[in-house]
Amino acid sequence: MANRFVLNETSYHGKGAIAAIADEIKARGFKKAFVCSDPDLIKFGVTKKVTDILDGAEIAYEIYSDIKPNPTIENVQNGVEAFKKAGVDCIVAIGGGSSMDTAKAIGIIITNPEFSDVRSLEGVAPTKNPCVPIIAVPTTAGTAAEVTINYVITDVEKDRKMVCVDVHDIPVVAIVDPDMMASMPKGLTAATGMDALTHAIEGYITKGAWELSDMFHIKAIEIIARSLRGAVENTDEGRADMALGQYVAGMGFSNVGLGIVHSMAHPLGALYDTPHGVANAIILPTVMEYNAPATGEKYRDIAKAMGVQGVDAMSLEDARKAAIDAVKQLSIDVGIPTDLKEIVKAEDVDFLSQSAFDDACRPGNPRDTSVAEIKELYLSLI
Question: 186-380 architecture in CATH?
Answer without folding.
Answer: Up-down Bundle (1.20)
